[in-house]
Write a structure and sequence with these properties.
By secondary structure, the chain is mainly beta. 5% of the residues lie in helices and 48% in strands. A 6-stranded mixed β-sheet has the order 3-2-1-5-6-4, with no helix packed on it. A 5-stranded mixed β-sheet has the order 7-13-14-11-12, with no helix packed on it. Strand 33 and strand 34 form a beta hairpin. The longest helix has 24 residues. The N and C termini lie far apart (115 Å). About 11% of the residues have low confidence.
Length: 447
């Protein structure tokens, strides 16, 4: 009997201990941990709007936390708020804007978007890039950026280096990091034609650039109304051009060419070839027409082995021709007013030149870039495109040309394709430079 009693007591003790253990392992949960605290789910990430497809109900975002591009679904139930909590619709959401993004538990749908209040936003700024360091400068402040930086112009994506130095953008980012750039004032192109008489002169874009006039020019200029002028000696031409973003505008400068008042363009025919011409004491190149004001001018022609000629030519017509033939016999000066030509034969008369203002082409103010004559810039793609460096033609891709130092604008153009410009910084590092640019997209319309 005692043994049976011990077994019953032991079983009761084990039951008690086992029940206590179960009780310790499975406490009753607390329904409300702290009724005085409201728990709110935070944003899943900060996202930059890359594009919105309202028809499909989808939005592409650059997730700055993960540094990745992602696509999400949204519905009419998706809440969208401005910085000041104003209700918005998806049609008000602009590419390039930055939002705090809230996702459903499934991870592929948006429940809420709110314009981020921590973002720096700067309008109408100009930017420059350091491609190697992945840095950009906006309003004198340097920011890092990634390959996913959102860069847009009229809703189309660009490479950062497609932003020209004169373009204006809206910048969005945080301290030390850029998120998006949206071009608000871009650039187009001017292709001058009919400007043969201005070659060697000076071209001016109002407030933008002064450069020498050369053959086959293509100018990258800010969009809007631009004043273009060319000057070569006594010739001048000026026109206002309406430039559209991304488009090439042709301008026939012959239509706007005019001659300065009381000034002639004099042609000299001098024999033998190689003689030197002095006008009012100044050595003058006479292989092209020479601008000369109406009135008297002291003329002197010299060549070793021939008699020197000196005399006075009276200019009273806009386009005379003066012929001088160095010979041993003295003859007079014949003037034929009917055809505005003056024939001058050699004379042994001597005289002294008088001081006069030079009529040579004034190229003062034309900035010349530093060059590295020992090294080259090579452009290998897109094949067949014409290459322009700061508006001057350099050849057809593939091509090479002398390396220049500093900030340049490289423009690529091809018939039937969209013209593209790239702003590039070239270091003075005694190295050759090689570039391969993306293929030009087909043009929607003829430029």
């Amino acid at each position: 009997m005692k043994r049976i009693w011990r077994i019953i007591c032991a079983a009761a003790l084990m039951s008690c201990l086992f029940g206590c253990a179960l009780s310790r392992r499975s406490p009753e949960p607390t329904e409300v941990p702290n009724s005085s605290v409201t728990y709110v789910k935070g944003a899943d990430f900060t996202g930059v709007v890359r594009s919105v497809d309202e028809a499909a109900g989808r939005i592409q975002l650059y997730n700055v936390l993960m540094d990745e591009d992602e696509e999400y679904q949204y519905t009419g139930a998706t809440e969208i708020f401005s910085k000041n909590d104003r209700d918005m619709s998806m049609s008000e959401v602009e590419p390039g804007e930055v939002y705090d993004v809230y996702c459903a538990h499934t991870g592929d749908k948006l429940t809420k978007m709110k314009q981020s209040q921590s973002i720096q936003e700067k309008e109408h700024v100009r930017v420059s890039f350091d491609e190697e360091k992945k840095q950009l400068t906006a309003d004198g402040v340097t920011y890092a950026y990634s390959d996913h930086l959102v860069v847009l112009s009229e809703g189309k994506e660009l490479l950062p280096m497609e932003i020209a130095s004169g373009d204006e953008v809206t910048f969005r980012g945080v301290k030390g990091r850029a998120y998006s750039l949206v071009v608000t004032r871009g650039h187009g192109y001017i292709r001058p034609t009919g400007y043969k008489d201005f070659l060697g002169g000076t071209l001016t874009l109002e407030g933008e650039a002064i450069l020498p006039v050369s053959k086959d020019m293509l100018l990258t200029v800010p969009e809007g109304t631009q004043g273009l002028s060319m000057v070569n000696g006594d010739l001048m031409g000026r026109v206002n051009v309406e430039v559209r973003r991304g488009q090439v505008t042709k301008v026939n400068m012959k239509k706007y060419q005019s001659q300065m008042p009381n000034t002639a363009r004099v042609a000299f025919e001098i024999e033998p070839d190689g003689a030197e011409l002095y006008i009012n004491g100044i050595l003058t190149d006479y292989h092209t027409r020479v601008p000369m004001k109406y009135g008297n001018h002291y003329i002197r022609v010299v060549l070793e082995g021939y008699s020197e000629y000196s005399g006075v030519a009276t200019i009273r017509d806009p386009g005379p021709t003066i012929r001088i033939n160095l010979a041993t016999e003295d003859t007079g000066v014949d003037t034929d007013d009917e055809d505005s030509e003056t024939t001058v034969s050699a004379s042994s008369d001597s005289g002294s030149g008088s001081d006069s203002e030079s009529d040579d082409t004034d190229t003062e103010g034309v900035s010349a870039k530093k060059t590295d004559e020992d090294h080259k810039i090579t452009v290998s793609t897109p094949v067949g495109a014409a290459v322009y460096l700061d508006g001057t033609y350099k050849g057809e891709v593939p091509c090479s040309f002398t390396k220049v130092i500093g900030s340049i604008t490289l423009t690529l153009t091809k018939e039937g394709y969209t013209t593209k410009s790239y702003s590039v910084e070239i270091s003075d590092d005694s190295q050759d430079v090689s570039w391969s640019f993306p293929d030009l997209p087909e043009s929607d319309s003829k430029g």
